[in-house]
Specification:
The chain is α/β, with parallel strands linked by helices. It contains 4 helices and 24 strands. The structure holds coenzyme A (COA).
């Protein structure tokens, strides 16, 4: 009795599976607002992706976890990367530094991603035990930036933290001033469309309002009002009305 060659059977199965996909189920995985659509980005991703790790972590955390070759990803017991529907996390792609990126989640830590978030080459992200780190749509952590999260750090949509910046929500040590113990960590909340200039440091407890700009090399230890530009050490308001194009 004649049997179909195995390739024909496989093709038939793929065709049948594809025919069952309606637009709704496809959009669930690829909502239009969260594609990494820029062709240059797609090309770089395809050239540098670590296929097996991408497939493994994407399946494990049920989201698109695109990992460049060389990226150091360490995930402690009970920790998770939480993806909103259709979210993409790109780790270690782009840009101009040869050093790979490193992402380390301690125990029971959560890294939450909405939309398309980038952690660029050379960046180092550490999320301590039980802490929460959130990245919004089109948010970027730049080359050689460091993020040290002991409690809660949030990057809003379209926020960029530039090269060599340092964002931390902790002193990482107990500091006692005139006999009074300072809080070891306090959340850092970075609003939507915030630009943190190269080499700036954002310290524990700071909230940066929507559209804020931090000048290069500043040390931010107080809240930044929405739409303001701050600079210096300690950072002071330079302008109360600033706009920038992501
Ligand atoms: C903040 C910034 C945007 C200001 O640009 P600008 O408006 O052309 O700056 P100006 O030279 O007109 O300076 C305006 C005022 O801000 C001050 N200022 C500018 N840059 C500063 C800085 N990095 N730190 C402290 N103060 C700063 C100036 O001294 C000046 O103050 P004054 O009016 O009292 O003299 C720019 O200096 C900067 O830091 N850009 C960030 C670049 C960057 O890191 N890009 C990363 C892209 S991913």
């Amino acid at each position: 009795m004649a049997t179909d060659p195995p390739t024909t059977n496989a093709m038939a199965k793929i065709k049948s599976a594809l025919s069952k996909l309606d637009k709704k189920s496809i959009r669930q995985w690829f909502p239009a607002t969260t594609y990494p659509t820029d062709p240059a980005v797609v090309r770089i991703v395809l050239m540098h992706i670590s296929v097996l790790r991408t497939l493994y972590y994407s399946a494990r955390f049920k989201g698109w976890c695109l990992i460049a070759r060389g990226t150091r990803l360490k995930i402690g017991p009970g920790s998770k990367i939480q993806f909103a529907p259709g979210a993409f996390l790109l780790m270690g792609f782009l840009h101009y530094t040869p050093t790979p990126c490193s992402v380390h989640l301690g125990r029971n830590a959560t890294f939450s991603v909405v939309g398309t978030a980038h952690i660029r080459r050379g960046a180092r992200v550490f999320v301590h035990d039980g802490a929460l780190f959130e990245m919004g749509h089109r948010s970027h952590i730049g080359d050689c930036a460091t993020v040290t999260c002991f409690e809660h750090i949030k990057f809003g949509d379209e926020s960029t933290c530039s090269w060599n910046t340092n964002i931390l929500d902790t002193h990482a040590h107990e500091i006692i001033v005139n006999g009074v113990s300072r809080p070891i960590s306090q959340p850092v909340i970075i609003g939507n469309r915030v630009l943190i200039g190269s080499g700036a440091t954002v310290l524990a407890g700071v909230h940066i309002g929507e559209g804020g700009v931090v000048a290069a090399g500043s040390v931010v230890n107080k809240d930044v009002p929405a739409g303001a530009m701050v600079g210096g050490n300690p950072a002071r308001v330079i302008s109360e009305e600033v706009e920038w194009i992501p």
